[in-house]
Protein 1
Amino acid sequence: MDSNDWPEPIVPVQSISDSCTHVIPDQYIQPPSRRPSPDLIKNVNIPIIDFHDLTTGDGKMVEYCPATVKEISDACREWGFFQAVNHGLSHELLHRVKDVWRQFFHLPMVEKRKYSNSPINYEGYGSRLGIEKKAILDWGDYYFLHILPTSLKDHSKWPSVPPSTTDTVEEYGKEAVKFCRMVMRALSLSLGLDVGKLEQSFEDDSGDGVGSCLRVNFYPKCPQPDLTLGLSPHSDPGGLTLLLADDHVQGLQFRREDGWGTIRSLPDAFIVNILSNGVYKSVEHRVMANSTIERISLAFFFNPKSDLLIGPMADLISTENPPLYRSMTFNEYRVYIRKNGPKGKSHLESLKS
Ligand code: OGA
Ligand code: NI
């Protein structure tokens, strides 16, 4: 696909980074109030949850440990984020999947450009979100692809170089979905629902099941990291996000009352964040640029089926806890966000019922 449908020609940030040594182009400069001001930033340790402690028993008779369910629940209520360790994915797989993507982003630009995406569905190699002309741009490139449902998965839109990409991403996707299902069950219990209730709410009877997609972020070195952002403030659109961060450099921040907190990510952990009806927080986050080290991250989104009507579950709604947003399908919501680009949580404000 060509990039004609973007409002302006797409220039990969990586190519700017390779050619500019001192000054970034104007379009990447944030207004002063949105720049990463050091006195408003703190390093923060978010709760760490050991998933080894969540369940006992064999495949058939699984028992969930109430203390760990409570830890998850408290983390979601108070922070909206936690780090998951002992999540069941092998560290070897985590390293391998980061490695294939690092190799991809280091291919010559002509190779990567073969996968250039369009704002129609964003699948492929891209450098911007939103189609607003002259919008301020983020200092990062990305690759976006669908893993589930199978009807949306299209291997021809995945990189064929390095050759192991498809198998590795398939393997990673399967394992990540398994872990997301475990988190969903814990969240379901923590909300006082039956263990499978939350998972079921993501599916319908068609058999095509939940959605999941992968956004691989690549943040090249930036000569003026104080003026720009790797990724502007946003909250993720799906049900659950697993972020696999770079082991070599930090950059992810979330909004706090008094500014921004930089998450100190543990190697081989997932940073998990959730979307909700206000019981749990879906926290606004952003990514800082870095002057000396490039950064890669994999955001795995576990989503409700795309044409399922999304609204809070009847079990969770009461006169004291009314629905906060109007119901819409996940697809409608996604189209809405894609038109407008990352705008913090203002999307959600305008959808309040
Ligand atoms: C995202 C995201 C954070 C990061 O892709 O939605 O928030 O650290 N990424 O790259
Ligand atoms: Ni995000």
Protein 2
Amino acid sequence: MAARKILIDTDPGIDDAMAIFYALASPELDVVGLTTIFGNSDTETCTVNALRLLEIAGRTDIPVARGALRPLAMDFRGPADFVHGVDGQGDTFLPAPTTQRRANTDAARFIVETVMASPGEITLVPIGPLTNVALAMLLEPRLCDALAEIVLMGGAAFVDGNASPAAEANILNDPEAADIVFGATCSVVMCGLDVTERTLMSTERLNSIGEFDNDRARLLHKILPFYMDFYHRNNGLDGIYIHDSATISYLLAPQHFRTISHPVRVDCGHSFSRGKTLAARSASDHHVPWIGRPATTICTAIDADAVIALELNRLEM
Ligand code: RIB
Ligand code: CA
């Protein structure tokens, strides 16, 4: 079977790096491009990180398109340097990549051009704030018809947020964009905190990555300690939550996930619950402002042991 073509929209980011390497090591997937966005760091830093990750993986054939510098309707809330380091890569301050395979267009246009050139073939995998994806939808109204699917990391349907008690970080960084994407007419799969905070990779297993004999694993072994330290101090965890890789696991092994389908709205107000993803759970909830919204496939449960084993297996390859 032909590999599934995916376009990853990302804000690397330590867990983004894991997800990108996981995808690149999976023969079932064909990564046709990376588009970048602010989030864990500013957009330019995330772009440099994306280029470096591809260089380390020996995949400088994959183009990188730099994305929006700010959310649709507000200023950027600022980098998550306390989680991912000032450089977005665990304060490792790695050398700049020498190959600069930047697309000669911005991320939204790159998404439109790539998807429209291969109708029905491209799956979008956003693992950062959804600004670029929303901009691409606004730019090309036929985009959703031409997309195979969107499988995204973001939101918290039936659990608390992580960037605020109400909101998950990717959604809080651009609620207006997220509400556009959850209203899209194509198939949207939401891998949110409902499953990612159930997927704890232990310190022991993370340390095993340091023994894998490839450059991708060696890079992860360098950048992971900062992220592990954050989770230890902040959440008292002996390990880390695996957020962004949930999208890749879903694409490779959807049988390890349980899902339900409900329309999702994002709170775009300017109060405490800004950025909260609200799923209409029952038919009686299907009233304004959910009415007429397409259903999102929401991941609600995960076989964490199975997806962690799969990811480690691929990172070792
Ligand atoms: O909430 C988790 C998300 O926020 C992940 O995408 C992580 O990389 C951060 O951006
Ligand atoms: Ca991310």
